[in-house]
Amino acid sequence: MTTSRTKQPGSETAAIPLAARPSLLASPGIRKLGLAVLGWTIACVIFFPIFWMVLTGFKTEAAAIADPSLIFSPTLESYQAVQDRSGYARYALNSVAVAFGSTLLALVIAIPSAYSMAFLPTKRTKGTLLWMLSTKMLPSVGVLVPIYLIFRDVGLLDTRTGLIIVYTLMNLPIVVWMLYTFFKDMPKDILEAGRMDGASTLQEVLFLLMPLTLPGIASTGLLSVILSWNEAFWSLNLTSSNAAPLTAYIASFSSPEGLFWAKLSAASTMAIAPILVLGWMTQKQMVRGLTFGAVK
Amino acid sequence: MPGMTGFAGLENYRYLFTDPALWSAMGTTLLLVGWVLAITVVGGTLLAVLFQQEFAGRGIARVLAISPFFVMPTVSALVWKNMMMHPSNGVLSWVAESFGLPAVDWFSSLPLTSIIIIVAWQWLPFALLILLTAMQSLDEDQVEAARMDGAGPVAIFFFITLPHLKRAISVVIMIEMIFLLTIFAEIFVTTSGGPGLATTNLAYLIYIRALLDFDVGMASAGGVIAIILANIVAIFLVRMVAKNLED
Fold first, then answer.
1. Are A133 and B238 in contact (CB under 8 A)?
2. CB–CB of A130 and B242 under 8 A?
3. Topology, domain B11-246
């Protein structure tokens, strides 16, 4: 992509007569410099709150509420305090368990269903797939009451299991849909060759389909992990202490503890860092998953 | 409150529709969705055009600009509330003061605006990400041809880029509408729907009725309304996805 585009500016200056070029952008050098300054300024302004949060995490509480300053002596005391006093690890563990648990469960359910949709389609397959996607468009708040009541009655409130179930159901449409598109891209001949050699359906899926589409499965899984990790409607409504993940833990800084900016920042930085990195890595898949393929 | 036992019929809906809080919440939802959509779609389109141009370090600048989308909602809301918008120690008030302007007490004088800013900050990167992806299929030769014919950057934007992005923009609008209709965490950790009902949207009203007032019937009726509103948008979105599934 970049290689084809890098040619453009050079050829363009050669091809266009001087008069046709807008005078403001007369010199490509100045134009590029201006673009760089503008682009970087906007990017930095958008990123600033995150940058500031990371910075504040390394300040003392006193320095955190003092006048904004870039110069300070960095300290790890907030990180220390967050670990020691509030049991950050417990919440982090809940987040990890819930995000990965729900992703694994979703993959286990979605791989067989996407397999059947991609390789053994019937005339109702498309309709089923669209119906599944449409459930993703259902606002969570619409089912808050029934889910809350069911969870209360069967004792799933404030449990990791409960949250895993909700997140699995929440992400299942996207996971099935993404796997379906990856499976569809796979050449059918390979699976057929396997079948000729006497592979059962299970062997076909485990030893041919899954290894061949591993990158697709991995990026689908990552997207599901990101979405579950950041989910903040169900975690706030269905958990209180035992199963509370990081989203709920951070929310506990909202009232009286909100004054501890350095600790809030340290805890937030730890909570978002892994997902930020994963997000950067999976941008493309993110678009594919979030728009249901409507934008390519 | 409707009868405590037995079948209520449409009673819950009657109470819901005569509840002034519902109409205030609908208004708030509309303002929130409308403003965030306007900011993110216009901003996202312009930024997508900007980040499509070649410049030094473009890759890193892009990554920085889309980052807020990966930050969990409770973190973004609290970072904005405490460290950006705090009336005395926040960065915004410090900036205002260094220009000799009075500091704004964001959450008490402009509560809904504050929420809109936070939510727009989270969703602008989403619009940018989708539109940048859509930009990549823009026909460079067509742009080149237009430039040869003497079209300026503005004309190219309005007659080539924008029509090309039309589809992607409508996808962004629909997906954002569905998610923005039920913004919850950002309100929960910053204003708790207040002051008064100033920042109570439909989702937050349902939460109040269900889990704070324990009026399950009325909350369910509210939930059905939220689902109907989302479905109006979803119908068009599903149609678009279906069309795409064919090719």
1. yes
2. yes
3. MetI-like fold (1.10.3720)
